[in-house]
């Protein structure tokens, strides 16, 4: 796994379907917080950590693949919430694997306690780590985790 040698890390935060309607959608699982609120917290954390973020959300699998392919030379790592693509988003997983970008998988709800199709992730085996069940705070945990991982493999 090769990590870009740059002064400032760039991390992609990638979201799958329906993350754009957080706060309105099944608050018993995802909470009442909107994606805009989570995004603002991530931007503040990025400033504090002196890293650059590329934030992306799409309801369309091919668009996510295009984003990964178009940015794979620009990013050091990624935090991804595949959302409804968790079980069947093979083209997204293939793009991540082909890019050799280390990534942390994040889920707002605890997909393992929910059972059924929610508990089956094709991404987990390839992810550096999986964070689930902490709602919006999982993204901050994911961001800190991928940065720590990149520091470890870089030898810092």
UniProtKB/TrEMBL annotation:
The active site consists of: 30 (proton acceptor), 107 (proton donor)
Q: In which pathway does it act?
A: Metabolic intermediate biosynthesis; chorismate biosynthesis; chorismate from D-erythrose 4-phosphate and phosphoenolpyruvate: step 3/7
Reactions mediated catalytically: 3-dehydroquinate = 3-dehydroshikimate + H2O
- What EC number(s) does this enzyme carry? 4.2.1.10
Q: Family, per the entry?
A: Belongs to the type-II 3-dehydroquinase family.
Q: How does it assemble?
A: Homododecamer.
The protein's name in its UniProt record: 3-dehydroquinate dehydratase
Origin organism is: Ruminiclostridium papyrosolvens DSM 2782
């Amino acid at each position: 796994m090769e990590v870009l040698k740059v002064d400032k890390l760039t991390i992609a935060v990638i979201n799958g379907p329906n993350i754009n309607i957080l706060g309105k959608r099944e608050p018993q699982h995802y909470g009442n917080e909107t994606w805009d609120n989570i995004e603002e917290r991530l931007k503040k954390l990025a400033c504090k950590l002196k890293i650059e973020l590329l934030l992306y959300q799409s309801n369309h699998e091919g668009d996510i693949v295009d984003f990964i392919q178009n940015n794979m030379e620009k990013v050091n790592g990624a935090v991804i919430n595949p959302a409804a693509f968790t079980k069947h988003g093979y083209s997204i997983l293939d793009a991540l694997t082909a890019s050799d970008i280390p990534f942390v998988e994040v889920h707002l709800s605890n997909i393992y306690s929910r059972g059924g199709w929610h508990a089956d992730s094709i991404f987990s085996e390839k992810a550096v780590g999986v964070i689930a069940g902490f709602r919006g705070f999982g993204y901050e945990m994911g961001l800190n985790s991928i940065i720590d991982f990149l520091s470890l493999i870089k030898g810092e």
